[in-house]
Fold each of these.
Amino acid sequence: MYRLTIKTGFAAAHNLINYQGDCENLHGHNWKVEVTVTASELDQAGLAIDFKLLKRETNALLDELDHKYVNQHHFFLDLSPSSENISRYLFQELSKRLNDGNVKVERIGVWESDNACAEYYE
Ligand SMILES: Nc1nc2c(c(=O)[nH]1)N=C([C@H](O)[C@H](O)COP(=O)(O)OP(=O)(O)OP(=O)(O)O)CN2
Ligand SMILES: [Zn+2]
């Protein structure tokens, strides 16, 4: 098996809901996002999936969040936009776009600071 990871990110504002503390107030992060996929086969060029395609699909999705107020995104209207929930959202959406008979999204890591990361995997 092959395992590939790309790193990208987005900058946005949010506030946690049903949370008591500073983070219930509006604030922002420069989130870093790691996308890991697995594959069993390589193409003629020796690629499991082109990193360019992986980054393009991920960044297209992140554009929905970049420089936005995450709480107003349709997925988070009734859901606290924690790093955990953001990672689950990205996992579900990227799985729809990327999974095929060979490639499978394995996990999403969402870093809200240099020292705090939430991951989602199934
Ligand atoms: N499990 C999670 N815990 C927290 C999340 C989260 O998404 N998942 N999010 C927050 C807030 O978004 C908050 O912005 C965290 O910011 P941070 O600067 O890390 O908070 P602190 O002030 O506690 O960090 P210090 O390193 O102590 O300055 C909170 N928790
Ligand atoms: Zn926050």
Note: The mean pLDDT is 98.
Amino acid sequence: MLTELLTGWITHQRWFAGKGRPIDDLTVESDVELAHGLRHLIISVCQGGARDRYQLLLGSGAEESARFKPAHIGDGYYDAAYDADLTGVLLQAMAAGRDLGPLRFRHMEGTEIDTSLRSLVLGAEQSNTSLVYGDTYICKLFRRLIAGVNPELEIVTALALRSDSHVAQPYGWIETDLDGEPTTLAMTQEFLSNANDGWALALASVRDLYASLNPSAAEAGGDFSAEACRLGMATAQVHHELAAAFPTEVIEAQEVKRMIEDHRRRLDLAIAEVPELGEYAHVAEEAYQRVTDAAREMPVQRVHGDYHLGQVMRTTGDWVILDFEGEPGQPIAERRALSSPLRDVAGMLRSFDYAALHLLTDHPDARNLRPRAVEWAELNRSSFLAGYSAGGGHLRPEDAVLLRALELAKAAYEVVYEARNRPTWLSIPMTAFQTER
Ligand SMILES: Nc1ncnc2c1ncn2[C@@H]1O[C@H](COP(=O)(O)OP(=O)(O)O)[C@@H](O)[C@H]1O
Ligand SMILES: O=P(O)(O)O[C@H]1O[C@H](CO)[C@@H](O[C@H]2O[C@H](CO)[C@@H](O)[C@H](O)[C@H]2O)[C@H](O)[C@H]1O
């Protein structure tokens, strides 16, 4: 039976958020035929009283299923995101503005979509699945569905309308109604075919640095600081545009204290899930307390919400920022809530630590390389901050306390993320609690 096959299959998918917990029930909530041999499913998964929804393009046919082995679900069914003979239907339906059952396919006013292009699934490790059409479009299928308009669509559309050069041009989207709310299922954007992602560039720089430590190396490599500075400037400019496109507020000190209480609650939840974090709870607690003690008014606005080096791409012109959907899995209202832009700054600072440390997790010479890795992180963190200020970002000396607290809050989130998805990386965010700053 299809639901049984899906129950076995889904637990192995990178984007499945309920790993490690048994599935009590899986039902198909919506089943729409998009083309011959291609169905769009919304499945509902119950685990311990909580229900999550996911979407799937379901292909069928014994021959095709055999052809798409990695996407094999069983019994002639397969994940048709991998079948370029079928995925053209998505572009065609968006271009035509079609309604197929409860699914609405739409394109941005004034844009033309080339429907002749064939797709490939992007190989990156992701929370979602992205189809790249030719070298022109990328269509991101949001896997775990949360009722509401995805902030990614909302923000990219608003910034593109303001001609912000730091976002990729949006082309179209797919939506349906979930719990009575229009809900984004997918979004198609310009594919930046000549760009490199920030994570890859940063890692290349760290690798160069390690190579240059070898006495036979010809030159000292590893300088990423000019790029980190430019990224800081681009970040400040995007924050400026977000503040112009969406409402902003200044919250009272009392509200700042409530925000810190919320971080305390999240820290407790993180410790419940990853008990070894408990040993360092006092480090976060002290940082949180310092914010509470010095609480003052704080400007808030729409932000990126899950900002890191994997979310930025360097084109020949400048940095472009991707994936404004916030932390995957949080309710939409929370992801749309106004926050301090320093949350994004803190996210990127964490990412420099990640880039510096990740190659050391299984490096035979880790002990000797660690001090240089730390230097690399410090240099790029300060260059990013300098660029952020130079680009007009608001960063005052007294913000250091808030920034430190937000970094540790992000690190607590990462501890849970790594424990669930990449346990061998767990030591990276744990290091944040062991580093004096
Ligand atoms: N518009 C784009 N052009 C080129 N590559 C992209 C684009 N959008 C995403 N990517 C690539 O896909 C990766 C993951 O994209 P992202 O939007 O962050 O998805 P997820 O939410 O699943 O992490 C990025 O790191 C980048 O390499
Ligand atoms: O899938 P998303 O990109 O929306 O974000 C999730 O996955 C990220 C990892 O892919 C995770 O980011 C963490 O690892 C990155 C390196 O892979 C590092 O650059 C980030 O600083 C670190 O937070 C992100 O937290 C998670 O939400």
Note: The mean pLDDT is 93.
